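Hi V.,

You were right to ask for the full record rather than a summary. Here it is.
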Amino acid sequence: MIHLTPADYTRQPWKNGRGVTVELWRLEEGGQLLARLSRASVVEDGPFSLFPGIERSLTVLSGPGFRLIGAGLDFRCERLVPVAFPGDIALTATETNGQQSDDYNVMTAGHLPKPDVRLARSESLPGGGLLALYALGPVMVNGQGVAVGDLVLTERPVTLTGDWPVLATRFFGLPES
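Predicted structure:
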């Protein structure tokens, strides 16, 4: 089990230059992105960065949310509801109404199976694939304390306990560590 804290994360500008991403974890192979977890804030209406060949999922963590629209797609991004979309379609955030929404982002290479992203609370999660747990408040993961904003990576079964949920992302098809 790998336990990362905000001290381990890196900040970088968005690809489109309109904001900043906090990268929580990244996996590459041969210089190509396989998987990435990050946090960002949407503070105004505007275009999302394009990521050809990448599948994306976004979950609003705080704030009122917003709409993502473009090329026949129209998603309402609401608090704690994961929304999956292709990274190679031009999408625009709308209906931000000048209010900030903080979100959790999952990116995977298009040739990999799409990850499962969901909210989990005080439950047992089986092993299989790589499981990433992003804590939305203090929780226990297999008896180990995890603070808000921490990320736990494991391939083993997990027992979650506590009053707060985690965003659980299960990746499949990644190289074994």
